[in-house]
Amino acid sequence: MKKYLWILAAVCFLQGCSKDEEEEPYVPWRPGDDKEETIDLDKATKVMILTEQAKNRIVMIDQPTGKIAWEWTAADSGLSTGEQAWFNTPDEAKPVYNRTCVLVTASGGGVGLIRIADKKMLFYAKPGGNPHSAEVLPDKNIVVASSTGNLLSVYVYDAVSSYVSKPAFTMPVYSAHNVVWDRKRDCLWTGTGAQLLKLSYNGNRAAPELSQVKSYDMAAGNTMAHDLAPVYGEDAMYVSSVEHVYKFDCATEKFLGVEIFQQKDIKSISTGPEGYPTIVMRPTSGSGNWWSAEVCDLKGNRLFNRAGYQIYKTRWYVENPFGYPEVHTL
Fold this sequence. Notes:
Mean pLDDT: 92
Order of helices and strands: HEEEHEEEEEEEEEEEEEEEEEEEEE
CATH superfamily: YVTN repeat-like/Quinoprotein amine dehydrogenase
Strand order of the largest sheet: 3-2-1-24
Number of strands: 24
Organism: Alistipes timonensis JC136
CATH architecture: 7 Propeller
Number of helices: 2
Pfam families: DUF6528
Shape: globular
Strand content: 35-45%
CATH topology: Methylamine Dehydrogenase, Chain H
Protein name: PQQ-like domain-containing protein
Structural class: mainly beta
Helix content: under 10%
CATH class: Mainly Beta
Distance between the termini: 72 Å
């Protein structure tokens, strides 16, 4: 009888484990998965784009397996030694043009548009002033936010000459950390201090201009806007400041609270289609550093970790219907 009860208990335990595994949308991350292995990008299922500062590179990780699906350093694009230094300390990388390219900024002073297939640099410039974010505009021009430069810079995209020496337009924006294009409203969003700014774009490719339309104040106690990212499938954006994380409803023009394991010092938030958890980056390295070796979800559950990595921002490698049309090509 005792033997029968033990067998029954074991069967129930295994069935319970199987049920839990079936309910998990992802393979749970295993702390021992520290070895860098690779997978073809077209075989990867759910890919994250990391700005990995330890080796000054952009890395695409297949989240369920932890394998590298693609990586890039400035040397891969044939830049000179001096130009390569512009891409030291990369701080943002986002997929654009139907995920055929990655738009990169780096604290070293550079901004670049890299074609994934051959790692060719289709556009690059040196805005300086700690570029922290960039966005492609509907006419293919590129706008860059420089945080210590307190500036937005608009560059005219040139399909013939990849290097563009000077911006065609600049606009002072205090501590500019982010830029997001809103296709529905035909406007550009950016954060400054404890405000979110709505900007209009004149659409003149040869003589581009931005101008402020409206500003939206965050709650008292916020000091500095940091990340700004569309919420996939919603008419909304995540906004992080040094102190808080909000969801900004673009229709009602209201800041909404967000349930998250940590409100302060969130460096990036990214969402995807159904089945993709919201991924969050916050510094865990201590001693005043700004990076982490791990990526978490909104509850603080670890989704990826690799010893030696210094990750600043993470984005899902997915389409962006908030900002771009369904067919979005150069």
